[in-house]
Amino acid sequence: MRDREIGRLARAAGYADREPLVVGLSRRAADPVFECRGPYTATSLVYAASLSKQVVAACALLLARRGALAADEPLSLRLPELPRWAAGVRLRHLVHHAGGLPDDGLVDARITGDRTTAAVLGALTALPFPARPPGTAYAYSNAGYVCLAEVVRRAAGRPLPGLAHELLFAPLGMRMSRFWGGPGPAPPGARPLAPLHPAPLSLGDGGLWTTAADLLRWADALNTGALGESGLLQTPGRLDDGTPLDYAWGMGVRRRHGYPLYRHGGGRPGVRNVLARVPDRGLSIVVVAPGDATERAAVLTDLLLDRLLT
Predict the structure, then answer these.
(1) Count of other CB atoms within 10 angstroms of residue 1
(2) pLDDT, tens digit, for every residue of 119-160?
(3) Is 168 helix (H, G, I), strand (E, B) or coil?
(4) What is the rounded distance in angstroms from the CA atom of residue 97 to the CA atom of residue 261?
(5) Distance between CA atoms of 24 and 76, rounded to whole angstroms?
(6) How far is the C-alpha of 242 from the C-alpha of 279, rounded, in Å?
(7) How far is the C-alpha of 172 from the C-alpha of 175, rounded, in Å?
(8) Does the predicted model carry a pTM greater than 0.85?
(9) Most buried among 28, 55, 100, 189, by the most CB within 10 A?
(10) Is 249 exposed, middle or buried (0-12, 13-18, 19+ CB in 10 A)?
(11) Tell me, what's the pLDDT at 66?
């Protein structure tokens, strides 16, 4: 696909020609293609928002393979400061958003300063009742992934930024990627979000700053099995009664035009991101839309998938 055709599909999704936008495509045995607009390029350091979740999930899986933690261990084992409900939550519940944690709205309402990992854990500590029994329902939980990232940190005995660099970013050549928990609103060299809506400083639900080029490297590594764990990372979870979910390790699981599709979005005021992969076709798509507050990035991703899969 040429830049001109990407531009045509971007216009069809509702993006004006001068709106900031980065679209990256990677296909097996072909060089990646980028369409970049505004002041942004394929190497602009931007906030990944919820795309962080699959990176944290991968760190958890790699630690589990080393015996440092177990998917079935109770959350209370690593985070004993949480209320009694944490004893029934398993780490695999957190991975698949089935932990039954207090709803994110209740958590956020108790945070008065910066949204840091400590602030999220403090809010959870003050909420004595779960939203629902763990393992009984899917309910997307940012707080759950903050807990998962903190479990990873404590199990590894080192901060998440350094651990992710060692396990993932350095081996995969993701030279620009990093987790950032402050103290400033963005890491050096990044394009921060609007001052009125800075990126949260919590790790796990977000916290990753990266580039479109690095996201394609990440997606390609999952497609080719370079991590050695793609099969499990792409395996959908189940509720405790065996009900299958359409969410794997930090990524949604769908089908499109007969192919398995793995995708996830990430949004904050000031950015919309989508990462989509079709391993059977060696296809990876990343859309980074700075300044966007709409669902056009998802629409553009669908248009690109339809064009490339048919």
Answers:
(1) 15
(2) 999 999 999 999 999 999 999 999 999 999 999 999 999 999
(3) helix
(4) 19
(5) 41
(6) 26
(7) 8
(8) yes
(9) 55
(10) buried
(11) 96
